[in-house]
TrEMBL record:
Protein name in the entry: Glycerol uptake operon antiterminator regulatory protein
Lineage summary: Bacteria, Bacillati, Bacillota, Bacilli, Bacillales
Top-level division of the source organism's lineage: Bacteria
Keyword RNA-binding applies: yes
Assigned keywords, A-Z: Glycerol metabolism, RNA-binding, Transcription, Transcription regulation
SUPFAM superfamilies from the UniProt entry: GlpP-like
The keyword Acyltransferase is assigned to this record: no
Transmembrane segments: none
Chain's role: Regulates expression of the glpD operon. In the presence of glycerol 3-phosphate (G3P) causes antitermination of transcription of glpD at the inverted repeat of the leader region to enhance its transcription. Binds and stabilizes glpD leader mRNA.
A Pfam family reported for this protein in Swiss-Prot or TrEMBL: G3P_antiterm
């Protein structure tokens, strides 16, 4: 596995092997909650903030050694061209980024950042679109939304061995477990009650049965 500048030793991938919940943070007040649960989260997806505050947020997560990914389409004031991504990698220093755009994935990987590409399965062409995107550039991780159609994870796994995170419309523990049952590496959720749950034991049972 390639060693990336902001994921020394593959820390995020190591955490994914034991902690299968990713905290999607949509408002600043959730940051402290995520930090208090850092020992049972694989990382955080930051979907709030702007260029003026984002470095402070990232520094806080880095201090606590909790991998942090910035959703570039949700953070105000960040440019996704080569200059903006260079600034992001050298100054802000997140573990990686989340984006729906293939060209941004390519730029992020050049800068040594982990790249998560988010796909939305809105119709029957959704899986084919993932296949076409991966033929152009391969992200480090795929995020598939919404999580309420977990059976589609198996279709995607037919043509890629990349880790798959699923999220979106996740409100209950049973929906998280459905994602694991169908092969998701992790589940992302913004509901803080789900961050507090322990999934490893039950998920291992599912694996052993399979």
């Amino acid at each position: 596995m390639k060693k990336l500048k902001h994921d020394e030793g593959g820390m995020f991938f190591e955490r994914l092997s034991t902690h299968r919940m990713v905290a999607s943070i949509k408002e600043p007040k959730q940051i402290e909650i995520a930090l208090s649960l850092k020992h049972q989260l694989s990382g955080v997806f930051l979907l709030t903030g702007h260029i003026g505050v984002i470095k402070g947020y990232v520094d806080l997560f880095n201090k606590h050694q909790l991998p942090v990914f910035l959703h570039l389409e949700k953070i105000g004031g960040l440019s996704t061209d080569a200059y903006g991504m260079d600034y992001l990698a050298k100054v802000i220093k997140p573990t990686g980024i989340i984006t729906t755009k293939t060209n941004v994935v390519k730029t992020a990987k050049k800068m040594g950042l982990l790249a998560i590409q988010r796909f939305f399965l809105v119709d029957t062409e959704g899986v084919e679109n993932i296949f076409k995107s991966l033929a152009q550039v391969e992200p480090d991780i795929i995020e598939v939304m919404p999580a309420r159609i977990p059976q589609m994870i198996g279709e995607i796994k037919k043509f890629t061995t990349l880790p798959i995170i699923t999220g979106g419309l996740v409100y209950e523990r049973s929906q998280v477990m459905d994602g694991f049952k169908h092969g998701a590496t992790a589940v992302s959720a913004s509901k803080t009650d789900l961050w507090r749950e322990i999934y490893a034991t039950e998920e291992n049972i599912i694996r052993n049965i399979g």
